[in-house]
Every structure is written in structure tokens, then in C-alpha cells.
Amino acid sequence: MPWKAMSAMEQRREFVRLVRQGGVPIAELCRRFGISRQSGHELLRRVASEGEAGFEARSRRPHSSPRQTPAAIEAQILALRERHPAWGGRKLARRLSDLGVTGVPSPSTVTEILHRHSRLEAAGVERPRRWQRFERAAPNALWQMDFKGHFALDRGRCHALTVIDDHARYALGLRACGDETEQTVRGQLTALFRRFGLPEMMLADNGSPWGCAWSEYTALGVWLLRLGIELRHGRVRHPQTQGKDERFHRTLDVELLQMQRFADLVACQASFDAWRVIYNEERPHEALGLATPASRYQASPRSFPEQLPEPQYHASDEKRRVRWDGSLKFRGRRFKLSQAFAGLDVALRPANTDGLWRVFFSRFAIAQIDLSDGEASAQPVKDLSEQVSTMSPV
Q1: CB-based contact 103:70 (threshold 8 Å)
Q2: Residue 145: which residues within 8 A CB-CB, separation 6 or more?
Q3: Is residue 51 within 8 Å of 62, Cβ to Cβ?
Q4: Exposure of 182 in the CB half-sphere (CA atoms within 13 A)
Q5: Helix count (H) and strand count (E) of the chain?
Q6: 319, 359 Cβ separation under 8 angstroms
Q7: Does residue 225 or residue 382 have the better pLDDT?
Q8: pTM of the model
Q9: 332 Cβ neighbours under 8 A, 6+ residues apart
């Protein structure tokens, strides 16, 4: 069965890397990549026996010479700098070492070589900065997603959708989209979920399509909840909440968008695919101690369900179906929830306080209602740390 044609070479590399990292059965990864198990095992055997040549059909290209003179190493440094004009001495030295080059000089010496050959004039060279970083303890605990500001193509405009793993900084998705609609985002996320599995949580800003001004929940957010993925929103006017994705956008600007002009979305996506491989598998990452994101990421064992599951509740729960206008009726009163839940069942469970009830959608507490209050409204649960992880009554 043939490999799909985003880039056969890139997909083969990603497949082998995910298999080696474990966590997901080979048969499941074959299904996600759309290949037969026979094709998957054949690729693994070729790579095990042939190394790098195994990724190419009948490729027997010679490896680089193990004996390098200082002049040859300097030439390699300049060649790598030519490919990545935004990389400084630390990244270049680490990448050459990762490639197995012997006798690589120190980062400061690499920087001197760049100075000597007048290669440090390009904008975007990173300088070390000190700040405190926060990250999730494991891959797939949190994915950050956002649209980078759209930009002009020769024909049309590109809305770049980016999805980053919080722990590994792995670029799961870099997609050239023609718009920012809910249907477009759902289609792109579905493809990512089929490839990498489901995360525990996703972080987005408050803009469309994952947020809106008049409700805590949108159709996209409810879809994620049905998949068992909690959607969190960053603080209003605080883009640093999604700092890793924002930093990814700046890197994308410096290393790709400022250097190229794209004819259309197809050409733009081709460049995105090629650069994503460099970012994940080649480019040393400062926040990871100059390791690559690919070295810290592994696929999620939670597979994407092709049949969207219905929310499940306990027999003791008081279930209500949300009306077309987003309201529900409880104890003779009507409470406004959100139209995103229209036609779906929610469960109500009493809280410890008299007259206070919590509204659950699947395992997520989405609102609370106060029967002792004169106003018939459901207040959203804004402190997401109070979300419960089991179906037990509160």
C-alpha cells in the first residue's frame, strides 16, 4: 500500500521515530499513517539494516567522510549557516554534532568563523535570555493552538494554523489554511488526532472559532469535550499565556516567512512541510538544552474515535437535554447555558452548598446554577482547576 504524498520521505521518518519511541502499537501507527502493517514492518527492517539509506527506495548514497580537516569542518559550518541564516553558533555547533561530525569546535569558535566570513549580518540571530519556563511534565498533556496572523500570497491569503506540544515544543501541525472557520479547524485537528492521538487538554485564545464574546463554549469546544479533550482559554489580552506557540510564530517568521514568497496555498504548504521537519528534527531548541523537539515527543496512546462518542452519565444524575436556544429546564425554572450544547444531554449534580448544582457535560463541569438565587442563569465554571476527572458525584 503506497505512502500518502505530503512527502513520502518525511512521513517515513516520522513513522519510524514514533515506533521507536513506543507508547502506541505498530499496528495502530500503521493505521494512522494509512499504510499496511506489511509496509510498516518492511520499512522498519530496511532502516534497521541500511540506516539512513533505508528511507529512500534503492538509495545507496555514500556517507560523509569520517576524516575531516579543519578547513572541511569550516566549510560545513558555512554550508549549514547558508541553509539556516537565522541560526547562531550554539545551534550550528549542536546540529553538526547531532549529525555525527567529528571535531566540531565550540559554539564561540563557530561564532568567530561566522564573524570572519561576514555571516552574522542576517536578522534574527538569537541571543541567550534568562527567564523562568513552565511546561507540562509529559507529551500530550497539553497542546497549544493558534492562528498566526494571515499574510498575502501571490494568489489569495494564508491563515497559518499552528499546533505545538507544550512539553516537547514539537510542531504537531503547521497548516496553510484559506480561512479560520470552525469547519476548517475541525478538519485540520481531525487529521492531527488521527496521526498523533488525542491530547489531554488544548490551550487557545478567546477568538473565533474556539472562543466567542457571548459564550464560554463554541461548537468546536463542545466537539473537543466529546472527544475527552479539555479546552482552556488564555487570559484576555495576555498572549504570553500561549507563550510557546507565540515563540514558534516568531521563529517561523524569521526562518521561513521573511525569506520566501509563496504563489498559493499549495506552494505554501509544501514549504511548511519541509520547514516543519527541520524545526522538529534538526533545529536545536534553546529551551530544551539544545535538544530537538522530536527527541522529547512521542505519540499519544489515546486513539481518535471515528464515531463521535455520546456523553455518559450515572443513573443517579439528573439529566436534561439542552434546548435549541441553549437553555435547559430544571426544577420548574429555565437556565441559559450555550447554544453549542443544543440537542445534547447534560447532567446536574448537587454541590455541597444548599441550592447549588453543578452542570456536567460528559466528565467536565461546565456551569453551576443556584436555585436560591433570584436570577435564573447558569454561571460558567471559570476556574478550570475545579474540573473533575471522574464520574463520581461531587
Answers
A1: yes
A2: 161, 162, 163, 164, 173, 189, 202, 203, 204, 210, 245
A3: no
A4: 14
A5: 10, 12
A6: no
A7: 225
A8: 0.71
A9: none
